[in-house]
Amino acid sequence: MKLPDKRCAIPDAVAKIKDGxxxxxxxxxxxxxxxxxxxxxxxHGARNLTLIKNDANxxxxxxxxxxxxxxxxxxxxxxxxxxxxxxxxxxxxKLAVEFNAQGILAERIRAGGAGIGAILSDIGIGTELAxxxxxxxxxxxxxxxxxxxxxxxxxxxxDRADSFGNLAYVAxxxxxxxxxxxxxxxxxxxxxxxxxxxxxxxxxVHTPGVFVDHVTALGELSKEYVVVRR
Amino acid sequence: xxxxxxxxxxxxxxxxxxxxxxxxxxxxLPTKVVNHLPADFPVCLHTENGLTGIGPTLSPEKxxxxxxxxxxxxxxxxxxxxxxxxxxSFAIVRSGRLDLTMLGAFEVSAAGDLANWKxxxxxxxGVGGGIELAQKARRVVxxxxxxxxxxxxxxxxxxxxxxxxxxxxxxxxxxxxxxxVSADGFVLVETADxxxxxxxxxxxxxxxxxxxxxxxIF
Lengths: 230, 218
Fold this sequence. Notes:
The structure holds two protein chains of two kinds.
Chain A: H1 10-14, E1 22-25, H2 35-44, E2 49-52, H3 64-68, E3 72-77, H4 84-91, E4 96-99, H5 102-113, E5 118-121, E6 135-138, E7 141-147, E8 151-162, E9 167-168, H6 177-180, E10 184-195, E11 214-217
Chain B: H1 4-14, E1 22-25, E2 44-47, E3 51-55, E4 76-83, H2 86-94, E5 100-103, E6 107-109, E7 114-115, H3 130-136, E8 140-143, E9 155-156, E10 169-173, E11 177-182, E12 185-191, H4 197-202, E13 208-209
Parallel strand pairs in B: 1-2, 1-5, 5-8, 6-9, 8-10, 12-13
Antiparallel strand pairs in B: 2-3, 3-4, 6-7, 10-11, 11-12
């Protein structure tokens, strides 16, 4: 037996993204953000997208390109602090933004990837962050219902992959990537290195390839991946 | 560079960290607390984006492009560091593994309510990980200037801003004083060098309990 080969050219992978899709994008700041797949989605041109990402990167980087191009009309996120243009789009009504507590966003995505409908949490109870959310009582305590999140597509950045789509991340570039890689109908991973089968040790796999639909090797990294000088 | 009094305030806050703690230092002034810990001090620093065992901050020339803290600063590891995903990172927070978090504030109420994420109409970049830190760390202390840039008190009887979490703050370190939040309201614990009790009372928009003893000076 041999595990299937999921290597794919980037334009062919992103061609599956449709107008109106919900797209999860890995990354926390620069580390783990799939910069190359994002540029391919800009070139592809799908519109009216809902993005799910921890942050909005910084102006001129990452998902900021999808905000500037007008392709993203909705953003589910935790913090926009480093992207003033995203805040301006939100304040002028051009971008609908749903803020989540960071760990709750992570758990909603994990629930979506684990086949669970919602989670219960006491985060935000007694503040405006719980406004409008369903509250249930369990064993005398109040919890808000946080629905699971799933997406049509997830765009993932890995350090190493193999041709079956097993993925490994490095350092703080892991963040939301392994969670999102489980929570979308179509999972597209870019990897800095794609190894032949057997060369990514089974013990070193963070995301099993069974979750991944397409894997693509990055060539030379663009300047968006490098250290940001602020 | 911090002003002298802010440096003393940060140094005083560093004494809040005791041996063996797991600690999360919020963005801004709290991250500077680490500069006042001895290099071999036994403490485990956590950052929300997926690291325990934060090492020194690095210059752009020495930075690893994949290794930042939650504020976007390029940091390093120490022997024994661990990386993990965002769900695991907040499992650490929500399950009570953080002994202490130090956060910034727009306002703190006499009941210990913290407002630090939104000023309606002016500032609303999102709550990030702050709400879970404030609600779930075993001890929450605040580092802030005593008043805002316009001179308005940040310590108030009640906060008019959207709250991050209710009744979460135990102690406040400012450039004028160290103040505890008690069941009876704010209690003056220490004053900054050159600051009188009357100065602190005048800059605080809530009753301040002043013990009838000689208070330490920092």
